Amino acid sequence: MNDTFLENIYKNKTLHTPDVLLCLANLSNDEVFTPPDVANKMLDLLPQELFSDPNAKFLDPACKTGVFLREIAKRLIAGLADKIPDLQMRIDHIFHNQLYGIGITELTGLLSRRSVYCSKSPNGKYSVSRFDTDEGNIRYRRVNHEFINGKCRYCGANTTYDRGEELETHAYEFIHTTNAEQIFNMKFDVIISNPPYQLSDGGSANGMSAKPIYQHFIEMAKKLLPRYITMIIPSRWFSGGKGLDSFRDEMLNDTSIRVLCDHENFRDVFPGVDLAGGACYFLWDRDNKGICKVRNYIGKEFSESYRYLNQFNTFIRSNISIEIVEKITSKYERFLNERVSIRLPFGISTTYQPLNNGVPCYFTQKVGLKYVDKNDVKDGLHVIEKWKFLIPKAPIAGQTDFSKPVGFYYDGNTRIAKPGEICSESWLIAGAFDSEQETQYFKSYILTKTVRFLLLQTVVSQNITRKNFCFIPELKKYTQIYSDGYLRKLWNINDVEWNLIKSKIGEIGGEE
User: Fold this and answer.
1) What is the DSSP track for 319-352?
2) What is the pTM of this model?
C-alpha cells in the first residue's frame, strides 16, 4: 500500500468532507455517538507530547464509531514522523502497539474497525495495517449479565437483558468483570471514551425506569491507574440522585480532576440529541493533583474559574453564580432541604387508582383532587392535619436546555392543601404549617426569583428532590409576603447580581 494512499486517508482533510462520523453523531438517540470536533477538544486536554511518544498506549473501553482512536491515530501519525519516518512502518507501529478499543456491541466493533483500519476486517487486503485476526486491537466479546435477585451485580440492569444469542445483551465487557486489566494485559497511558449512559432497571410501574451506568466506566478506568482519563458524560451527576450519590462524592473530592468542561445544553455537544441537564467532559491526571479549571459553556460563550469541586456538597456549575450562593449561604445554618418532604410523602404512587370518596388527595396537576383509601395513607411526617404547600416534583418537564431561563414554581403549578388533604408522589411538600396565613407567606418566599435562582444552581434534570433545596435558607419565621425587593435588601444583592438572577429565571404566565 503506497504512502500517497495512506496520506490521503489519514492526512488529507479534503477526503473527510463530509465526515461520516459527524453524520452518524447527528443520527443516534440510543447510543450517543461523539462528533469528531468534540473528540478533538477532549484530546486537546491531554499533554500533546503524548502524541510524539512511540510507547504511549491509548484505550477506548466503549467504542461506538471509533472516532477517538481515529483522531488519536491522526495525531500520532504526525507526531511520530521524525521517530519513524517510513509511513507504513509508522502506521503499523501505531495500530499494533498503541491503539486499543472494546466495542460495546458487535456492530459498533465493526464500525470502529472500519473507521480506524479503513476495513471492518483488519486481516483483509483493504486494511491500512494488516493484522493476523479479524479484530485487530478493537475487540468485542459477548458478555452476559450476572443476575442476583433480578438485578445485574455489575450494572444493575434488570432481567430484560437476559437475552438469547439473537439480541445484544448490553453487558459491556469493561464493566462486567473484576479484572479489567486482564482484557489486554497491559498498562495504558490514556483511557478516553464516551461510555453508554443508562440501562433499564425496571424500577417504575411502566418498566421505563433507567439506571445510570456511565459512572461504572469511570470507576473501572480509575482502577486501572492510567496516567490520564478523559470521558464525556451527562452532567446529571453534579447533584447525585439515582445511583450517583457516592459517585458524585468521589468525583467532587478527587483532586486528580484538573479540568472540567460543562455544557448546559446537551445539543451544543451532541447536535440532534436531547438530554436534560447538559453534558461535561473532564481530564483526570493521576500524577498531578490540585485545583480544577472549570469551564462553564452557554452556547459558544464560556466562563472559566479555578476552584475545588468539593466547595459545596452539590456542584455549582455556573462560575458566575458562586459568589451569590456564597454570599447568601454564609449567613445561615439551616436550609430548606431539611424542610421539604421526601418522595412519596404519603405513600400514594402516581399509579394509584382514585376512589369516589375517602381521603382527599392531589394527584397530578391535570387530574387534580381525588380520593384514596385512608388505610393506604402513611403519615410518617405527621403533617396530614397541617396546611401544606405542594410543589410538583417535575416542575419543568419538557425543558432540557438550562442555559435558557427556567420557570420552576409559579402560582399556577403549585397547590395549598388544607388540613386533612394529602398528595401523591407527583408532589413534594415544600412546607407544612399550622395556619393558612403562614403557608401563604412561605409560598410567596418560594415563588421569588431569588429563591428559585438558588434552586437552579443544583438542578440538572427535570425532576427535583429535597436535596435541590440545599442553598435556600430556612427563615426563622415566615411573617409576611416576601418579594425580591425585600430579599435583595436582606441578602445584599447588587444590581449586577440581580440582573443575572432575572436572566436565569423566566417569566411565566401566572407568576407573581
Assistant:
1) TTTHHHHHHHHTT-S-BGGGTSPPSSTTS--TT-
2) 0.84
